[in-house]
Amino acid sequence: MQSVGITGTGSYLPENILTNADLEKIVDTKDDWIASRTGIKERHIAPKEMPVSELCYQAGLRALEDARVAPEEVDLIIVATMTPDYAFPATACLVADRLGAKKAAAFDLEAACTGFIFAIATASQFVATGMYKTVLVIGGETMSKILNWEDRSTCILFGDGAGAAVLQAVQKGFGFLSFELGSDGSGGKLLSQPAGGSKCPASLETVEKNLHTLQMEGREVYKFAVRIMGDVSVKVLEKAGLRKEDVDLFVPHQANTRIIDAAVKRLGISPDKVVINLDKYGNMSAAAIPVALDEAVKAGRLAEGDTIVMVGFGAGLTWGACVLKWTKVGLKA
Ligand code: COA
Questions:
Q1: Residue whose CA is closest, atom 27 of ligand 1?
Q2: Domain at 176-325, CATH from 3.40.30.10, 3.40.190.10, 3.40.47.10, 2.40.70.10
Q3: What is the pLDDT of residues 67-85, one digit of tens each?
Q4: Global pTM value
Q5: 164 forms bridges with which residues in the sheet?
Q6: Mind listing the pLDDT tens digit for each residue in 277-321?
Q7: Which fold has domain 4-174?
Q8: Core-most of 17, 88, 119, 267, by most CB within 10 Å?
């Protein structure tokens, strides 16, 4: 099997920023409550007319430029999203067309906030087996479009954005060392968008009842998240044959600083190794991890040979993690 790594990253955030103070004017909430319970101070919100494919296109383009790969060289595009432009066609197909990635196969993958981890795990198999040389993986969300802006327990949590990574073959010993993925459908009701699918097709009634918006049992999701983030991080490190001392950078899903703190404590790593940007962006679901990774790369927080753990959780319920030995040097074709 070929070793597979990330040879380029990119991200894109829509310009418009919604602060906690702005939210105070929309729902009965306080900046202090949001900041102390979640760590979130502001989030980016896409304009009404901007679909998620636009965010994904921008992030994908930047990742390709970073990896010095032309769109025509891309073999496969996977978009992880739960807020696609349409139920079909797949957002990945629209992005491929915008990019001019003429030879690329393209599909969407839905694992909610864990989507990016599931997508890189999937993408890496294609490169590891030699079926494809270059895969573009994008996590993008326009969460603002599926929120109930009258529900203070959910609308304060999320934001819009997209992050992307180019996966290619790398030197042995580098790239992905282990993956750990899981799901538990019995917890599906804890976090869902009930209407619009085949179980509850769109109707006047579903719109009136607000069933096209995100519904969540926050406390239950919180308990699950605290447990799973620590567990899966420990497991994925063990699978790679590494110890907590080996971790140079921890890139967790950006939902809540209290959830991240609990995982960091469980793993026993130093807080200065943790990437946190949810104060600026809120929870961007599948976009959270790739945006955090891209920002860490651009901020110079990663050196050749560093060990990264990325870990996420989300609706499904789903969870996933990977260990990555960092190099941006792809093998010559
Ligand atoms: N502003 C002010 N008060 C709010 C509020 C808001 N935005 N949202 C909820 N409240 C109130 C509640 O009504 C409740 O009031 P009550 O005690 O009078 O009933 C009180 O604050 C406490 O609510 P609770 O839900 O217990 O708060 P919490 O400490 O569990 O924090 C979350 C709420 C949502 C921040 C927390 O549960 C969480 O982060 N859950 C995980 C969510 C998540 O990560 N989802 C994405 C998964 S990918």
A1: 219
A2: 3.40.47.10
A3: 999 999 999 999 999 999 9
A4: 0.97
A5: 10, 138
A6: 999 999 999 999 999 999 999 999 999 999 999 999 999 999 999
A7: Peroxisomal Thiolase; Chain A, domain 1 (3.40.47)
A8: 119
